[in-house]
Amino acid sequence: MSDWLSTAAGGGEPRCHSLPSPMSSPQLLTLSRALALSAAALWGGCASQPPGPPIPVIAEEINATRSQALLGTLAPGDTLEVSFDQRSDWNHNVRIRPDGQASFRSVGDLEAVGLSIPQLREKLTARYAEIFQSPVVTVNVSTPADRTVIVTGEVNSPGQVALGTGRLTLVQALALAGGHKTSSARLDNTLLMRWMPEDGRRIAWRIDAGTDHWGTPDPILLQPYDVIYVPDTPVTKVNIWVDRYIRQMIPIPNLFPGVSGISGSR
Predict the structure, then answer these.
(1) Number of domains forming the structure of the chain
(2) What pLDDT, on a 0 to 100 scale, did the predictor assign at position 21?
(3) Is 263 inside a domain boundary?
(4) Strand, coil or helix: what is 86?
(5) Which of 11, 107, 164, 219 is deepest in the core (most CB within 10 A)?
(6) Domain shared by 230 and 160, yes or no
(7) Is residue 259, in this structure, part of any structural domain at all?
(8) Does one domain contain both 109 and 239?
(9) Nearest to 28 by CA among 155, 185, 150
(10) Of 255 and 166, which is predicted with more confidence?
């Protein structure tokens, strides 16, 4: 990886985390304040700290880490329509709870978060085959829940931002968070933290997201659970900052088999 990429230092056994519910306003305010205080403790040598790599330079590297599995799987809050061929009286709707499970008719609670539709259909087919012969199960997402990122720090409306269709850029997220505070935001030291579900770790970049780079044809694309932090002073020891504060403050979802938390990083 390039020398501007800083990551959390893993240590010890992975810790299990339950799936997070949407953050409330007080939780987001607490998160924003804590991020600012923790960054302040790690300023060190701010006067000489150069900007991060500009968006056009770093976009390709960041976009290469986007998890297609994460973008295409079920999430808490999704409402599912379960139907049966020739057994319409068994049709029902379920909603995936914050703990990642949903309660299906006659088979009870099953883990659904992190599965694709075909994977869940296969699981349900196996369970309903214990009840009646040769079930043909269809699963559709009738009402998808918002996939979100968090934008905090020196922005006018810190909080969760919905991904919408799934193609949201870093600059768009800043705009949806009310824009940056022009008198205090250090856009040239914007931090992006990303959860990598396939290998169970969070990575981070320091980015020059200054307005001069907003019109680039190669934007930075976001994915669910990304965290954007705009500081008012550069954070120089990003790896320590992420390891000490981000890992402890933001719950990491247990989305994939074999991934039970942060197990390390590069």
Answers:
(1) 2
(2) 40
(3) no
(4) coil
(5) 219
(6) yes
(7) no
(8) no
(9) 150
(10) 166
- pLDDT category at 116 given cuts 50, 70, 90 is confident
When pLDDT is cut at 50, 70 and 90, the band that residue 265 belongs to is: very low
Q: What is the pTM of this model?
A: 0.64
Are 222 and 109 found together in one domain?
no
In a domain, 264, yes or no: no
Other Cβ atoms closer than 10 A to 190? 27
Residues for the chain: how many in total?
266
C-beta atoms surrounding 256 within 10 Å? 18
Verify that 91 and 57 share a domain, yes or no.
no
Question: CA–CA separation, 131 vs 153, rounded Å?
Answer: 53
- If one counts every other C-beta atom within 10 angstroms of the C-beta of residue 154, the result is 21
Report CA torsion sign: 26, 31, 36, 40. Answer: positive
- For the chain, the distance separating the N- and C-terminal CA atoms, rounded to the nearest angstrom, is 8
Residue 34 to residue 31: CA distance in whole angstroms: 5
Whether 40 and 94 map to the same domain: the answer is no
Domain boundary pick from 143, 177, 193: 143
Tell me the per-residue pLDDT of 44-92, one tens digit each, with 9 for 90 and over.
Answer: 444 456 888 999 999 999 999 988 767 678 888 899 999 999 889 999 9
Same domain, 38 and 90: no
pLDDT in tens, 146-182: 888 889 889 999 988 988 766 899 999 999 999 999 9
Domain that holds residue 179: 5-70+146-249
Residue type, 95: R
Dihedral (C-alpha) 28, 29, 35, 37: value to the nearest 10 degrees? -160
Give domain status of residue 219, yes or no: yes
Q: Is the pLDDT of residue 1 over 70?
A: no
Task: Report the C-alpha gap between 233 and 189 in whole angstroms.
Answer: 8
- Please calculate the CA angle 150-153-158 and round it to the nearest 5 degrees: 50
